[in-house]
Every structure is written in structure tokens, then in C-alpha cells.
Amino acid sequence: MANGISKKAELKETMVYPEKEVAYRLLGALVAAAIMICLILTAMTIRDKILSQQFNKMMQVVYQFSAKHGMQVEDIIVEGNRRTSYEELVQALNLSDNESILGVDIAKLQSQIEQLTWVRKCVVKRSFFPNNILVNIEERKVKAIWQYEGRFYPVDSEGNVIEVEDYEPDAPILFLSGDGAPHHLEALLKVLETDAEFASRVKGAMFVSGRRWNLILDYANGVVIKLPEQNFDKAYQKIALLEKRNGIFKRKLTSVDLRYDNKMVIELNDSVDGLMLKR
Q1: How far is CA 245 from CA 57, 123, 200, in A?
Q2: Which residues of 146-184 are buried (b: 16+ CB within 10 A; e: fewer)?
Q3: Dihedral angle at the C-alpha atoms of 89, 91, 92, 94, nearest 10 degrees?
Q4: Are 142 and 154 spatial neighbours (Cβ–Cβ below 8 Å)?
Q5: pLDDT tens across 163-194, in order?
Q6: Which alpha helices (H) appear in the chain, and where do they start and end?
Q7: Contact (Cβ atoms closer than 8 angstroms) between residue 102 and residue 133
Q8: Which pairs count as long-range contacts for 56-64, CB under 8 Å and 24+ apart, including other chains?
Q9: What would the pLDDT profile of 88-143 be if each residue is shown by its tens digit?
Q10: Which of 57, 70, 136 is nearest to 102 (CA)?
């Protein structure tokens, strides 16, 4: 009798309740579904790769066939290049002889050309009948010359330093000095443009202590204008207006300090050390 009771107890302990059985089955189904999805995705990836390879092989045959039957690149026509040589462009394009015009990767060619030193951006197009590649280039516009570690570098309007060995400016150009000057040139140019007439007298700009500008004017004595770190646009506009109204730079000045809120300090070169003028 006791033996029969113990067997019933063992059976009761090993029973699986309906709630747990449902949970186990649901978990098993989810795991099986996840494995199935992974297998399907893997199979699709392998299939797509094989199809892609087959497709690329087929297109290569098409390109070769088209090139043999009059659809090869015959010429490269370039517009807008003044400082970028045709030889540099041909090397950047890297097109082989009898290249099929259908197989030319326009986006890739465009990217390769924009890696050239003087190229700011370009547009590449196909031209069928005749089969030419058209390249329209916008080159960088030099706005200043930066002196750094004994060398002189052209700098474009966006503050990019153009790494070239030799550069001959076409006209008088702004001379930059000071560490980090090119990175702040764009902001300075915007301020100078607010009074273009006065800006034409600015021949140099020194970036001081990585914080502010000194402007050097092209007057005989090379007057220095010390601009403040903050709101230097307002200081520039005030000094430009003062020059228009009073012609202060016709006097024997060596520097005008605009770094103070309620005054400016003018230094004369006739031994007057500091003349304080109230605004």
C-alpha cells in the first residue's frame, strides 16, 4: 500500500501543468521561427550575391559588345579649368582605350576629379553621338595668401588651404598671417564685404592669439586696426564710417585700437604715445 502511494507522488511531481506546457511550446515555436528566418535571409543573401555576380558578368559582355560596335568613349571635353591641367584630368578619369560609354561610372569619375587640388566641384555627363565625356569644373577661388612656417599658401573663400608648390596671384590679394587664420577667413570676408570700399584698403590680416584680428591698411605708414574678439563686425563698420566722414587715416597714424567698449586708442607716429578719443 505504501509503495502505491509513493508511485502516485512521483507521478504527481513529474506532471507538466497546462500553463507551462503552452509557454514551452510558444518559446520553442519562436526559436524555430528565428532559426528559419536566419536560414532564409542567409539563402537570400547568397542568392543575391550569385545573381549580382552573374549580372555584372552579363553587363561586362554588353559593354564590350557596345564598345566594339561604335559605343566607345571617343573624347573628353573639359570646361572651366584654368589651373587644373588636362593631363591631370585624364589621369584622374583613368579611362582605358576603347572604354564603353555605357559602362562609364559617372559618379565615380566625378568623385575622382573632385579629389584634384584646384577642383571645388564638377559635373560629369555622357554625350552620345558623338560619344564624348563632358566635364564641367568649378575651381577654387583664391581669396588670400597665408604665410605659415616660411611658406605661402593660397586660401579659398571657404578657408581651405590649397596645397600647391607655386602660386602667382592674378591681382592684389589679402595677405594672412597667424595660426588658424584660414579657418576664420570666411567670417572675416563676410565682415569686410559690409563696406567694400574700405575693404579695398585692407592689404593684410593677422589672426592674433587664436582669438581676434588685426587689419593692416595699405596707407603709406601701414596703419594697424586692432579689432575686438567679440562683435568685431560692428567695430569694423564704425571705423569705416569714421574714415568716410572724417578721413582719419589721412593723418599720421600707426594704429587704431578698437578693443574697448567706450573708447578707441589712436597711436600717432609723431611721438604721441596714446591719444584717447571718446566715441
Answers
A1: 76, 48, 17
A2: beeeeeebbbbeebbebeeeeeeeeeeebbbbbeebbeb
A3: 120
A4: yes
A5: 888 788 877 899 999 999 999 999 999 999 99
A6: 2-13, 18-68, 86-93, 106-113, 185-192, 196-199, 232-246
A7: no
A8: 59/103, 60/103, 62/102, 63/100, 63/102, 63/103, 64/100
A9: 998 998 887 777 887 788 899 999 999 999 999 999 998 877 788 899 999 999 99
A10: 70
Burial 89-114 (b: 16+ CB within 10 A, else e): beebbeeeeebbbbbbeeeebbebbe
Kind plus residue range of the DSSP H or E element containing 226: strand 224-226
CA–CA separation, 189 vs 233, rounded Å?
10
Supply the pLDDT for residue 23. Answer: 66
Average pLDDT, the chain: 80
Amino acid in the structure at residue 150: G
C-alpha cell at 27: 518559446
Cβ-contact 215, 202 below 8 angstroms: yes
- Check if the beta carbon of residue 118 is closer than 8 Å to that of residue 139: yes
Cβ of 66: how many Cβ atoms within 10 Å? 16
SS3 195: helix
Provide the residue type at 128 as one letter: F
Question: Whose CA is closest to 103, among 135, 71, 132?
Answer: 71
Residue that wins the pLDDT comparison between 11 and 136? 136
252: which 3 cell numbers?
599720421
CA pair distance 196, 78, nearest whole angstrom: 34
Residue found by looking up cell 569686410 in the block: 192
Which residues lie below 8 Å from residue 240, measured CB to CB, with a gap of 6+?
195, 197, 198
